[in-house]
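Following up on my earlier thread - several people asked me to post the actual chain instead of describing it. Fair enough. Here it is, all 366 residues.
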Amino acid sequence: MREYSTTVLIAAVICFLVTPIIRKFASKSGAVISIRARDIHEAPTPRWGGLAMWASIAITLLIVRNLPLVEKSFSRETLGIFLSATFILAIGMLDDRFDLDPLTKFAGQALAATILVIFGVQLLWLPINGILTLPSNIGQLLTILFVMVVINAVNFVDGLDGLAVGLVAISALSFFVFSYLLAVENGYSRAGAASLMTALVFGACLGFLPHNFFPARIFMGDSGAMFLGLILSASAITLTGQIDISALTNNKQGAANLPLILPITILAVPLLDFILAIVRRVRAGRSPFSADRDHLHHRIMRFGNSQQRTTAILYLISAMFAFPTVIAAFLPVWISFVSALLILIFVLISIGFFRGSNNAATIKSE
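Reply from S.P.:
Thanks for posting it. Predicted structure:
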C-alpha cells in the first residue's frame, strides 16, 4: 500500500505542476472553448486538460517502475491500456481543437478499444446463470461496446467545473480499494494493472482538480473525458481477468461478480445521465449527442444550488453508490446499507438547506 500511496502522491504533484504549462500551451495552440450561444461561462477557457493528466501518468510510470511491488504491475495489459489511452487522448485533443464530428470520434473510440483487445484486455465471462464463459469474439465485441459506453458516459457528465474529474477520482479510488482488498482477501498478487492504473488516475485527478474546480482555469475537454473513461473501463475489465472463476464457490461468487457490477455502481451518476440524455433527445426527435440543459446537474441547480454545491452533491451521490458496493464485498451487507443511507440523508439535507441559495454559478455546457 505504501508504494501505491507514493504513486498517487507523485502523480498528483506532477499533474498540479504540469497543468499551468499545458494551459498556456493550449491557449497558444487555439485549443480554447469560446463562448457559444448555449454557454454561460464568461470567458474563453483553454482545454487539453487531458494532456496534463497523460503527462502526469506517463512521468509517474517512469519514476515508479523501479519500486519492488509496483514494478510487478507492469505487464502487457498495462502497456496496452497506456497505448490505448494515448491514442484516445490524441483523438480527444483533435476534437478539442477542431470539433470532430461524432462519427469520427466513435471510430476513434472503437479503435482505441480494439488496441486494448489486441493487448489481451477483454471480457472473459459474465455472471449469467452462474458464470458464463464468453466466446472470444463475443468477449471482444462486448469489450469494445463497454469501453465506448463508459467513455461517452464520462464525457456527457462533464458539464460543471470539477464535476467529471471529481466523479472519476471517486470511481478510481473505489476501484483501487476494491482491487487491492480483493487481492489481500483472496491471496492474489497485489501488483496488477488495475491497481496501478486506478492509483495513477486518482492521483492525476487530485492534481488537476484545483485548476478545474469553479472557477475553472482549464477544462479537461474531450481529451480528458475520453482518456479517463477509457482507463476506468479498461481497469474494470482487467480486474475481472484477475479472478480465477474455476475456483469460485457459491459464497464467494457474489464478491467475484463485483468487478462487473462495480463499474455500474461507481459510474452510476454519469451512466444515468448518459441514458437519460439519450432517451430525452431521441424522444424529442433530436440527435442523441446534441447539447441541452437538462442534465442532472442542471436540474439540481434549479433547486437554487450554486455550481459548487451542485458539484459537491453529485460527488456525494456518486459516493453513495460506489463506497457501499466496495464495503459489501468485504463486510456485512447491513454496514453497506447503513453507509449508503447516511450519505443519502446528507444529500437530501444538503439539497433542502441550500434550496434558496445563490444560483449565480456558471454552467459549462457540453
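Residues 2-272 form one domain. That should answer part of your original question.
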